[in-house]
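pasting for ref
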Amino acid sequence: MKWQQAWEIGMEVVEALSPACDRIMIAGSVRRGKPEPKDVEIVYIPRMSSERVDLFSYGDVPATEAMIEELVDRRLWLFDDVVRRNGPKYKRMMHCMSGAVIELFRADHDNWGYILALRTGPGDFNKVWAAHPWDGGCLPTDIALKDGYLWRSGKPVATPSEDEFFAMIGLPCWQPEERSAIRLAKFLVDRRKRV
C-alpha cells in the first residue's frame, strides 16, 4: 500500500482507540515515512478500568479490549487468521475495507520510549542498538533489554520517552525517517575516533 493510505488507516485506528488510551501513536514504517509500508503499527498505553474478573473479585482491565471487540463486532477490523496474535501486549488485526495489516503494541508509562523506538525501527537499526558489543551491537554492557523494559543493575529503568530511552543507551534520538543501520554505523565509527 502507499504511504498516504497507510497513514489514513493509522489515523483511523488512533481515532478509534484514543478514547480508551492514555497515549497512542503510529509507529513502524508509516512513522518513518516509507513510501510503501507493508503494515500499520500502533503503540498505545491503555486506560485501565476496574471490571468484575470473577464472581468474587474485580481487576484492572485495559479499556482498549472492549473497543477492539466492538470494532471486530462491527466488522471494521478482524483478527488476522493467518498470523494469529491476540495477546495482552500484541494484537494483529486486518483492516476490513483495505485488507491492510494493523499491529497493536501495548506499552505502559515506564516503557513507552523503549517500545516506541523498537516498533518504529527499522529492523536493521534495531539489531545494532539492541545487541551488546560481543554480538555486534552497541548496547552498553551494563544494560539489558528484557520483558519489554530496559534493565540496569538488575532493576527496570523507566523510559517514558524515546529521548530518554536513546539517552540511556548512549545514542542520539534521530527523527524516525533518519534512522538507519548505515547512519548508526557511521555515528559509532565517529564516536570511536573521538575517544
